[in-house]
Specification:
This protein is an alpha/beta fold. The protein has 21 helices and eight strands. The protein folds into three domains: about 80 residues, SRP54, nucleotide-binding domain (Four Helix Bundle (Hemerythrin (Met), subunit A)), CATH 1.20.120.140; about 180 residues, Rossmann fold (3-Layer(aba) Sandwich), CATH 3.40.50.300; about 140 residues, 434 Repressor (Amino-terminal Domain) (Orthogonal Bundle). It has an eight-stranded mixed beta sheet with strand order 3-2-4-1-5-6-7-8, with helices on both faces. β5, α10 and β6 form a beta-alpha-beta unit. α2 runs antiparallel to α3 and α8 runs parallel beside α9. The chain starts with a helix and ends in a 10-residue tail after the last helix. The structure holds guanosine-5'-triphosphate. Keywords: Cytoplasm, GTP-binding, Hydrolase, Nucleotide-binding, Ribonucleoprotein, RNA-binding, Signal recognition particle. This is Signal recognition particle protein.
């Protein structure tokens, strides 16, 4: 899970100070020392750490904390603010050219995930912004790279412009832009060549494309798992190309987060997007504040809601809400609900967005296991239609049969039936509470 190692350490540290009614300078000193160590261990650039700690210290012993009624919490707010600022403060939006098409040039080293990200970005622009991009294959040194982009284009059902490996990348880019104007593509995303290392010839070629094409954005794609190496690569590309933003890939596997926390401070260029998996819909706009929240275990409810809005069918959600209110929610609905939650991505990532979920005892290793979801689905599928609607009729011998049919155990079946009945009880209580408050039910199912 992204930032897991860093998050674990920081959360332990801040827990100690959160509840304090009084915060002494000594407390702040101890906390900042631990934060400093946690960040260095996460491979955050040491200069960046030094400056950050100085700012946290200054604010944490300042008036805003000392005169506050909840100094412990106020200190954590300072840490969160400063982490947010470190990652760029506000979310940085993607450019829109006055006259279409908007041209985005993708640059980066080989293997960083440039081509995959080109596809993901095109998908994001279409899904979230209703745009109609043209993808351009400018990596003429590797025929496989052109093929890879064409395959992505087919998967996404999007046009890909290529002139094979004989043409000059500057010509390809120019002709692609002319074609985009003709075909009314409002974005042109150029996938350029990568190299194993920062190399003079490559930079010259990229500079030529830049001078000729005048892109609205130059996105550097870096692999976040490479930590400070990614920061050094970003520094070189920025010096030579004056990039406009960074896309951090493979953040899903980056438990440390050193690149994410250092890149903005070192290059002064914002992180625009984060790659959270290999699939084409696993690209997220980068929100510094939400990321800081996740690192500090405060959850990221906004991203969760946005994910739910994209992946959960609104009509089905309304129907489900109605069923819950009228208490006619069955195992069939439960199965459907699970399917929708699954579409939202790996459970671990979802849980990281729920405030405090990582602190719930047993949740981390027990209930987050995908195989358990599969088990639950198998059990429900082994019930008869009648049983799914009214699980109270499932007696001892049926429990055994269901366990056998689903390849699980009677204990697992019993557990699920118990959980379901408890969930219904809880729904009833919540519905009653809502009724008491508003006179009318308005219960919302989690994730919706
Ligand atoms: N887990 C994970 N894998 C990713 C992500 N982004 C890219 N990858 C994987 O990283 C590998 C390299 O990606 P490519 O897109 O082929 O790399 P590239 O930078 O275009 O490489 P060149 O075309 O050689 O320059 C592929 O296996 C991708 O699936 C991400 O956000 N998360």
């Amino acid at each position: 899970m992204a930032f897991e190692g860093l998050a674990d350490r920081l959360q332990g540290t801040i827990k100690k100070i959160t509840g304090k009614g009084k915060v002494s300078e000594q407390d702040v000193k101890e906390m900042t020392r631990e934060v400093r160590l946690a960040l260095l261990e996460a491979d955050v650039n040491f200069k960046v750490v030094k400056q950050l700690i100085a700012r946290i210290k200054e604010r944490a012993v300042g008036q805003e904390v000392m005169e506050s009624l909840t100094p412990g919490q106020q200190v954590i707010k300072v840490v969160k603010d400063e982490l947010t600022n470190l990652m760029g403060g506000e979310q940085s939006k993607i450019a829109v050219a006055d006259r279409p098409p908007t041209v985005i040039m993708m640059v980066g080293l080989q293997g960083a995930g440039k081509t995959t990200t080109t596809g993901k970005l095109a998908n994001h622009l279409r899904k979230k912004h209703n745009r109609n991009p043209l993808l351009v294959a400018c990596d003429v040194y590797r025929p496989a790279a052109i093929k890879q982009l064409e395959t992505l284009g087919t998967q996404l059902d999007m046009p890909v412009f290529s002139l094979g490996i004989e043409a000059n990348p500057v010509d390809i880019a120019n002709q692609a832009i002319a074609k985009a104007k003709e075909d009314h593509n409002d974005y042109v995303i150029i996938d350029t060549a990568g190299r194993l290392h920062v190399d003079e010839n490559l930079m010259e070629e990229l500079q030529q494309i830049k001078t000729d094409v005048k892109p609205d954005e130059i996105f550097l794609v870096v692999d976040s798992m490479t930590g400070q190496d990614a920061v050094n690569v970003a520094e070189s590309f920025n010096e030579q190309l004056d990039i406009t933003g960074v896309v951090l890939t493979k953040l899903d596997g980056d438990t440390r987060g050193g690149a994410a926390l250092s890149i903005k401070a070192v290059t002064d260029k914002p992180i625009k997007f984060a790659g959270m998996g290999e699939k084409l819909d696993q690209l997220e706009a980068f929100h510094p504040e939400r990321m800081a929240s996740r690192i500090l275990g405060m959850g990221d409810v906004l991203s969760l809601i946005e994910k739910a809005q994209t992946n959960v069918d609104e009509k089905q959600a309304k129907e489900l809400e109605e069923k819950m209110r009228t208490m006619s929610f069955t195992f069939d609905d439960f199965l459907e609900q699970m399917g929708q939650v699954r579409q939202m991505g790996p459970l671990d990532d979802l849980m990281a967005m729920i405030p405090g979920a990582n602190k719930m005892k047993g949740l981390k290793n027990a209930q987050l296991d995908e195989s358990q979801l599969t088990e639950v689905e198998a059990i429900i599928q082994s019930m008869t239609k009648k049983e799914r609607q009214d699980p109270a009729i499932i007696n001892g011998s049926r429990r055994k049969r269901i366990a056998k049919g689903s390849g699980t155990s009677v204990a697992a079946v019993n557990r699920l039936l118990k959980q379901f009945s408890e969930m219904k009880k809880m729904m009833k209580q919540m519905t009653n509470m809502q009724k008491g408050k508003k006179g009318k039910g308005g219960f919302k199912f989690p994730f919706m």
